[in-house]
């Protein structure tokens, strides 16, 4: 029963992101309907994006099921920059009102990694949404997403200028059901840790020198990048 409860919480947490995106896209399409021929292309684009997220939700269920059954996902050579930008595009849906400045610094010498794209995008979406949540209510902030090479691995970093995380909480943050959110289930970062470690990487947090928190995780480089 405990395992089933944890699985249900994990699925609810992961599916909430694409389902929220679907709701936002369709709500935007509904507002555009009837505004004349100029809005038709925008409506079509919003509906297509909603359909893409419905497919993504199905992928998440299948991949999580396979991950729990076999302990590994479908790993292929992927462009890390593309994986990061696609995940951030999803995570930032509906975030314009938060007045958060988003910057990217992609290492030009780093591109190909060996990952399960959907799973790693789940990790990035979790970290970006957590960063946005941390800065909520403070009238703005800065979110920075960086890729670089660290000890022969590709590293992705997500930094925010929120209130930060105390050392005691940070030490337990990747354990199941530990959360800093009033209404959080505490499964997101636990799933992130499981996915990253299954890829042979690690995930950790540290204070952001600019104030707030920084989260980092590593994944394997493709062979042609290990030079």
Morphology call: globular
Question: Main sheet, how many strands, which sense, barrel?
Answer: 5 strands, mixed
Distance between the first and last residues' Cα: 48 Å
Structural class determined from secondary elements: alpha+beta
Q: What is the helix/strand order? A: HHEHEEHEEHHEE
Oligomer: single chain
Overall pLDDT level: 82
Give me the number of helical elements. 6
Strand content: 15-25%
With strands numbered from the N-terminus, the spatial order across the biggest sheet is 2-4-5-7-6
Q: Regions with pLDDT < 50 over 5+ consecutive residues? A: 182-186
The gyration radius over C-alpha positions equals 18 Å
Portion of residues in helices? Answer: 40-55%
Number of strands: 7
Short summary of the structure?
This protein is α+β, with helices and mostly antiparallel strands and 227 residues long. Helix content is 48%, strand content 19%. A hairpin with a 5-residue loop joins strand 6 (203-207) and strand 7 (213-220).
């Amino acid at each position: 029963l405990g395992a089933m409860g944890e699985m249900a919480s994990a699925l609810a947490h992961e599916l909430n992101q694409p389902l929220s995106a679907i709701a936002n896209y369709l709500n935007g399409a509904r507002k555009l309907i009837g505004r004349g021929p100029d809005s038709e292309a925008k409506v079509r684009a919003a509906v297509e994006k909603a359909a893409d997220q419905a497919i993504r939700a199905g992928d998440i269920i299948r991949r999580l099921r396979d991950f729990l059954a076999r302990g590994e996902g479908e790993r292929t050579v992927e462009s890390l920059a593309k994986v990061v930008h696609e995940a951030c595009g999803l995570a930032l849906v509906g975030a314009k009102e938060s007045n958060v400045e988003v910057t990217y610094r992609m290492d030009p010498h780093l591109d190909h990694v060996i990952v399960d794209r959907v799973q790693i995008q789940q990790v990035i979406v979790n970290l970006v949404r957590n960063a946005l949540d941390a800065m909520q209510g403070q009238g703005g902030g800065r979110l920075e997403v960086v890729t670089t090479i660290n000890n022969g691995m590709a590293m992705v970093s997500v930094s925010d200028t929120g209130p930060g995380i105390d050392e005691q909480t940070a030490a337990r943050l990747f354990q199941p059901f530990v959360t800093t959110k009033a209404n959080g289930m505490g499964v997101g970062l636990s799933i992130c840790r499981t996915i990253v470690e299954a890829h042979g990487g690690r995930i950790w947090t540290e204070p952001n020198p600019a104030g707030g928190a920084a989260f980092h995780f590593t994944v394997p480089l493709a062979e042609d990048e290990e030079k």
